[in-house]
Please model this.
Amino acid sequence: MRAEPPRFAVVGNPANRRTGFFLDAVRAAGLPAARVLPWVDVLRDGAGFRPGETVRVDSPGEDPEVERLLRGTDDPARVEGTARWYARFTAAVQEVADSARGADCRLLDGPGDLAVLFDKRLCHAALSRAGVPVPPSPTSGGGVPVRGWDDVRELMRGQGMPRVFVKLAHGSSASGVLAVESAGAGRLRATTSVERTPGGLFNSLRVRRYTTEREIAALVDALAPDGLHIERWLPKASLDGRVTDLRVVVVGGRATHAVARTSRSPMTNLHLGGARGDLARVRDAVTRAGGDWAGALEVCERAAACFPDTLCVGVDLLPLVGWRRFAVAEVNAFGDLLPGLTGLPGGPAEGLDTYAAQVAAVRRGGRFTGAGADRAAA
Model:
């Protein structure tokens, strides 16, 4: 007796590209059309599922009204409000999960996993406990309070960290991130996309540098009420004078997609001037240096395994100077938006985009198995 095909329900924003791409993947697989439950309705009235649906929780981004309900502002460029966003989002996800389980539905995104993934301090601690290489952090686990610049400065001195990343605990897409470096004679520099205005803090599409302690302290003090996470700034490998890192998508336990990102600034995010790099050159650089490309992908799979109730995550992997060692900077719950990118050659998602790969994994029971020769060939 053949199993019935999955019937998907997506909690998302209908106009969001992520939701659209997933609906396209379901349609292309010849499955029943996915049902969309708009976030704005879920936040106001709750979610109602039909028995036996497979439920995907998608990003609540790119909708001003949803942003207002979660964060108290409809301006997506505004930085403040991430702590409020986190509290309301995780509560909503738990309600979605309760409703789904009550209807005997299958969840593709565990509420406990999402609560950790959207708190960089908790995520860092989970990875560290599992032995995943991560940048050293005095705020891992959230036990060390960071009330402002004075605390950041003291932690940098006390931990012997002249270069750090200061991150919003609940931020995403480099929002509120400062790359801070100190030199002799008390000199400081912070690289960030944050612009401080009389009306508050706003994300800019232009990376800027602040070079006085007064300016940097004012930024950190304004960010601190939403919660801060601090990590040692590890030196990344580079190609052609551009620092390089990787976004690796892990679906059903396997590293299925990877894209190289390069930049002349510490942030490689594409919306901040970063560019897609040549993945083949990155792989060749690792091999020539005596590194282990298959091992690098395995690090990403180990990171994803920390979130066993979530089908798909995007892992930000840092190749360190010398191309022989790697560290995981972040794990992203909604890290699959890579239009046009198909799966790694020889892997289980070869020829599939990130959304089609997730549909295929669900049809296989939620796991891609057989790690081995195909990963080494990827």
Summary: Confidence is low (pLDDT under 50) at residues 371-378. The CA atoms of residues 286 and 323 lie 5 Å apart. The two ends are 35 Å apart (CA to CA).
